[in-house]
Amino acid sequence: MKIAIVCYPTFGGSGVVATELGLELAHRGHEIHFITYRQPVRLALLSPNVHYHEVNVPEYPLFHYQPYELALSSKLVDMVKLYKIDLLHVHYAIPHAYAGYMAKQMLKDEGIIIPMVTTLHGTDITLVGNHPFYKPAVSFSINKSDVVTSVSQSLKDDTYKLFNIKKEIHVIPNFIELNKHRNESAISCQRSVMAKKEERIVTHISNFRKVKRIPDIIKIFYKIQQQIPAKLMMVGDGPEKVKAENLCAELGIEDKVIFFGNSNEIDQILSYSDLFLLPSETESFGLAALEAMAWSVPVISSNSGGLPEVNFDGVSGYLSDVGNIDEMAENAIKILENETTLATFKANALDVAKQFDIKNILPLYEKLYQEAIEKTHQPL
Ligand code: GMT
């Protein structure tokens, strides 16, 4: 199949999922065309099956807001015609499903019928999409998609609750690629740069937005390090980062917290981590938690949204109510203070992660693509 993937190219989870999906599809012989405004961060190499087409939005002084959706839908039309693309897969409803629908309509006018799969990722429904300024356009473009998927059952339920959606929503969870190369000597070398042998390594990775409850992470870690020698790795960048740095200074733990900024070394950092913190206000799935679990790192998370579908309470980690810092710290200490308990949680985390192996999840997308293409080309 020839598939155009529209996504955000940044460090956010939806862009990561879209990129990893595209790369694995290409690996399985499909021709993939990424269409977005910058080369996606996880798209290191292009190959005969992997193409990238940049959407340019020329600056024009008359416009207070440059019309990205217009440029994206025009680019989609051009690329579908040029490469004879069979299907559009848009990740994150805003504004991708809307731009995709416009492209479909323009192509229809020229006698080209192309199906569109829309994947809902989370904040496109629960935070941004739900805003009255966007809601009618988001509802419309979801209902006009040929196939709709969501990354968790919780997000599917939220979508039906918040919008008037008449379409079936298929749940296809996020996934990870297991069996990444593990180089033990490189891991122990890197670890020794970050922490002393006796210190536990606690990690958080995100885009440091309010929804991630960054101050909770610092406060949980503050309690952990009072009981157990530990270091905190804060990976990512975003609006809450400076506040977090200030809080560390206020609490006198700045020497125990390392801020990495955006990093392409996520696998390396996770490979020597002992615990992952994700106390988010809302999280449709929690890909970062799954990525940690794939490196045998147990997770302390909130129980909001889709997190209970990924992090199993008392098995791969623990879940608590949003904001229950005391319980999260207690559970973290319970896991970290005992070598045997930590080893059990680490093994469990990996076992749970195995259920989300890309090899099991990818065929679910392929099946929906095939059905969408067949349905689109059926005679009326
Ligand atoms: O919240 C983020 O980290 C970014 C955001 C995005 O859309 O890029 O992530 C959402 O999509 C991810 C991939 O499907 C999910 O794993 C995250 O849970 C979801 N974030 C939220 O719901 C807050």
Automatic annotation (TrEMBL):
It comes from the Bacteria. Residues 11-179 form the Glycosyltransferase subfamily 4-like N-terminal domain. SUPFAM superfamilies: UDP-Glycosyltransferase/glycogen phosphorylase. Signal peptide: none annotated. Residues 195-349 form the Glycosyl transferase family domain. Gene3D superfamilies: Glycogen Phosphorylase B. PANTHER family: SULFOQUINOVOSYL TRANSFERASE SQD2. This is N-acetyl-alpha-D-glucosaminyl L-malate synthase BshA. The lineage of its organism: Bacteria, Pseudomonadati, Bacteroidota, Flavobacteriia, Flavobacteriales. The gene is bshA.
